[in-house]
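>> received
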Amino acid sequence: PAYVASRRGREPEPEARQALTAAQAASDWAAALAAAEVGPPRGPVVTIRLAYLRALALKSLGRPRESAPVYLDAAQAARRIGWLRRACGAYAQAGQTARAIGDLRAAEEAWRASLETARQLEHDLDTANALLSLGITERARGRPEAALRSYEQALDLFRRLDAKAQIAWTLHNLGNVRQAGGELDVALALFRESAAWFEAIDDGRGLSSALASQGRVLGRQGELAQALQCLERSLRLRIEGGDTAAAARTSNGIG
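>> returned
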């Protein structure tokens, strides 16, 4: 109700709306940033919309350190007026941006806020995506057990939603944690299941990653012929996909 009430009579001026729409359509982020900063907004919804656009423009202009706190401000403001859908997305953007600039503590806080908001909305896909991203951040912060819990919760939701790509990547992330913990048989099974999902959806990039991971585990287990087979197939996929950096890493692994 607070959000609905705040919308009444609080839309941007027609000229501002046109400038924003044109700038976004043209991906002219400098113009979008200028439009977002013109004039004092008249109400909370407009303020939040302009803040979100400003954060997006800053990020697109290569200024993520300025963008992250603006996303967070937009998320907190949206939550205060009960605009939970916008808050959830803005927290997620804040988490992505913070992780990209290496501020893992801020990233974790943002993803936890996104997760809490998604659960409040009872939105399973956003909840699962937040759990997956939270797990990635927890692992990067040196907390593998916490990451496993987040990944497993995410996987359960993704399976219920039949979200094939997310299932594949979550299995791969689980495999990485198990491999790092020395559980090679478990990791190999996860990487193989991940590869099967990637192959089913014709995702060459994901499949090449899963195959490379299988190759590394098989190499550690002494299964050198199988390891070489996986790594060579991964290399072919990466060359075909034009991923020269990944192809070079895989080639080094074969060597």
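>> DSSP finds 14 helices and no strands in the chain.
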